[in-house]
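Marked as duplicate of an earlier ticket. Keeping the data here for the record.
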Amino acid sequence: MKNENIFKSTIKASRKLNTISEEAINKVLLRLAEAAVENTVFILAENAKDLARMEKSDPKYDRLLLTEARIKSIAAEINNVAKLPFPIGKTLEKRTLPNGLLLEKISVPLGVVGIIYEARPNVTFDCFSLCLKSGNAVVLKGGSDAEFSNIAIAKVIKSVLNDFGLDENIISLLPADREATAELLNAVGYVDVLIPRGSQNLIDYVRQNAKIPVIETGAGIVHVYFDETGDVEKGKSIIFNSKTRRVSVCNALDCLLINRNRLQDIAKLLAPLADKNVVLYADEASYTALGDEYPAHLLLKADEKSFGTEFLDYKMAIKTVGDVYEAIEHIADYSSKHSEAIVTENEQNKKIFMQQVDAAAVYINASTAFTDGAQFGMGAEIGISTQKLHARGPMALPELTSYKWLVVGDGQIRD
């Protein structure tokens, strides 16, 4: 294994983390937030090298792009993590058995967390800060698209760790080549859990090829259902925000479901999207209803491939349905179980939607853009889990821990 020494060094560093106090960890994080801002010129210069290799029309360009404002936002999130409650060593359960044995269940780090991600350099900062606060070492495998950015950010992080006399191998950045990817997927005995962050293709590849435990995050095929009783003004702003706030993120809207009895309002609902040049892939009924009300060059007829697609772009599918049950059925067929929303004033339909939609986050009359660790008050997230084992939805500090049992006796033996 070409990178075996990196894995070994990370494991060794993870054991040392157990000896670092909460106060010391918080000081490192606060200093890292300052260092991120202080190194803005350096980070942006390296980020520019990555951007120069990518077409601006590529949906991943926005994810790759760092700006002074985004670095300040990243620093603010690191500060938020420093202020969050320490998740390690918490007593989750405690009791004494009839034989006198004292049982205590306490929270512990996962150990070594592997992160494989695409053109998202902010992940390097976010994941390190969350892993450090939760007592985990981290092995990062970024994509070649963000190679210069990731190396620069890792350099800043390691510099801060060195300033505090800590082992810089708490964070390890693997080379951006495919060989390193294969090694990470097969890092049995080195990495405790692997979290992929990126497209559905990346997540599928990791799930199908990894020999170490995987938590699926990231891919979001997101729907908003505009019900028969939906408020037009609420619907218009929710659809616009869900779709256009940032099209390249996993909580962005991909498919609008509209009750056929509200097709007369579809042009008004979608009018703001035209200003953002959003391409619509409309089914027959919605295509006819939009008619000349939406720019012809942005209005196309949908086919089966239009549904179940995570666009990550200024594109959206439209499907006409008869009622809330048909909307739920469509979501069940095409959803990635990330975020789903209903716009309705009907209390019964709210209950039905909340009960029957299977997703990590289910919204009533609100934008899906809120599916985010920081928005949920968790600090910077490490990802949004779309599975049901261990963690679901935005993953932050508590989701980066496991537990162990402490058993204290006084000579007891089992019959």
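See parent ticket for discussion. The radius of gyration is 24 Å.
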